[in-house]
Amino acid sequence: MANASAGRSALSRHLRILSAFNADSAFLTLTQLSRRAGLPLASTHRLVTELESHGLLERNEDKTYRLGVRLWELACCTPGALGLREIAMPYLQDVHAVVGQHTQLGILEGTDVLFLERLSKRNAVVNATLIGGRLPLHASSSGLVLLAHMPSAFVDQIVNDGLFSYTNHTIRSLSELTATLSEIRSRGFVVADGYIHPDARGIAVPVFGANQVVVAAISVVVPNDETPWEATRDILRRAAQQMSLALRSAYLPPRHPQALPGGRYRPLVNSSVKSMEYLGSTARRYSAVPTPRD
Amino acid sequence: MANASAGRSALSRHLRILSAFNADSAFLTLTQLSRRAGLPLASTHRLVTELESHGLLERNEDKTYRLGVRLWELACCTPGALGLREIAMPYLQDVHAVVGQHTQLGILEGTDVLFLERLSKRNAVVNATLIGGRLPLHASSSGLVLLAHMPSAFVDQIVNDGLFSYTNHTIRSLSELTATLSEIRSRGFVVADGYIHPDARGIAVPVFGANQVVVAAISVVVPNDETPWEATRDILRRAAQQMSLALRSAYLPPRHPQALPGGRYRPLVNSSVKSMEYLGSTARRYSAVPTPRD
DNA sequence: TGAATACTTCCGTTCATCGGAATAGTTGCT
DNA sequence: AGCAACTATTCCGATGAACGGAAGTATTCA
């Protein structure tokens, strides 16, 4: 193709457009897309038109665009995430029925927790996570559980990449982190008080797949008050045990020993994309105050 | 690009690869992908490598490919489908808790029902649907409810496109269909006995959004026996009412008056793709016996 | 009504994409 | 082990699809 100034291939352009959407801004105009994707308007127009013709984008009456259901349909065949989700769901529902607070299922993706499912009550405490949302490993209860079972080189990288602080309870040093992680390994759970929001407490336990590999974490978010958490932890533990049992009889592709191609672990999004200022979603999604811009 | 023999653009090639996966075959080798997508092996290799680098595909240890979680992540920002799903979930869970059988949420997509969510019990009766799966409108209880609120031109097209018969109870004529649809409009629900599987009964009711437009259907699949279904229907009705109420206060992009660009309604997948024999998934997914091939 | 902003179409240039062919790796059979 | 059949990967020159500046059209707002 001609003068491909921006992101190399056609695919990366298309993805740059699709990635411009996030939970905060699900409706974008052509111009916004163009700016967010860092592509010329004319090119954006052409790309967007093609994406629409394939059902990856849909058009609203006010001419803004939204992501199309086609995308969702494709995603439904993802075995890595959705196989796990399918199997885990019934148990997650059980936990939710008893605890009645945010209940979530997360996996390690790149250098974040990715939440595959979240069950909520309308009046539950505030919760930072979204389905399909990510949180840094060091700050969330689920993340810590997942991190606890990773090689130390991986932990080091997380620390080097910077430990974002949501509150003044968020873990902010390597020593604090390694202490917490070894405690998790010996005790088999974690209670994170106010790491992300002062009023929220996260409780998480690991879910094991075949040959004792940690494949996911389940967690609940409850108010950060004097309520004892032991009962909740035990419920989580029992659910996780059941899930592990169910998982053992199902084939799921191993995701955890995360390939490290050039010695480094793969970051959450393609580095080429990650580094682009205009994409912004990744870095910004972590900040306490979400600032959607065009 | 050079000698672009097959599907026009780069995007359509990429999509052809991604679409080669379905629930029955979530793991495919390069050669299988090449065959299914109808693309030269070398090209497939190149495309697949790029898709992998963007996280849209992932590689298994045995060198087969699977769809990547990135896809799922993107899909999580789809407001059309997922906004609805988010809002509907709690009520769907309530229904499921009481009924204890397959409970599902479906929307009209192209000329099919697309199921956004399904809650099941391990020991529930057989059920043809999958999350992200489709069923023809005339054959499923959800589909009939959705179809009942569409213009007659749309119904005609469905009939002209052919009414696939799963069992000898499946609706197979225009007259039968229009009779059923008008009954649905006056009664506000449908009971479909053995339309898809002789032992399964579907019960469905419509979910209304703003200004009384039908945006979805919720349904349960129960055994097709002498058990009275009135109680179940009433539970569904009440849940649908609650959903409609919740939906009224949320903005959801209107999906239903389905744009008809050239007089015809848009078929489920790009016509260019649909007509390709080698893709096969669409047509085949409807047949009683799923026949996954390379 | 006029100006600013957003969207769409046009079209000549160009380089990323294309895929045949050759090479390397794997599996299974005798 | 040796061979055959299959699968995956790399190479590379030709070429036309994708590129985006610019000009035209529609919409919004004061």
TrEMBL record, chains A, B:
One of its GO terms (biological process) is negative regulation of DNA-templated transcription. The keyword Transcription regulation applies. It comes from the Bacteria. Keywords: DNA-binding, Transcription, Transcription regulation. GO terms for molecular function: DNA binding; DNA-binding transcription factor activity. The keyword Transcription regulation applies. SMART domains: HTH_ICLR (SM00346). It holds the Pfam family IclR_C. Residues 70-249 form the IclR-ED domain. InterPro entries: GAF-like_dom_sf, HTH_MetabolicPath_Reg, Tscrpt_reg_IclR_C, Tscrpt_reg_IclR_N, WH-like_DNA-bd_sf, WH_DNA-bd_sf. Coiled coil: none annotated. Residues 8-69 form the HTH iclR-type domain. PANTHER family: HELIX-TURN-HELIX TRANSCRIPTIONAL REGULATOR, ICLR FAMILY, HTH-TYPE TRANSCRIPTIONAL REPRESSOR ALLR. This is IclR family transcriptional regulator. The lineage of its organism: Bacteria, Bacillati, Actinomycetota, Actinomycetes, Micrococcales.
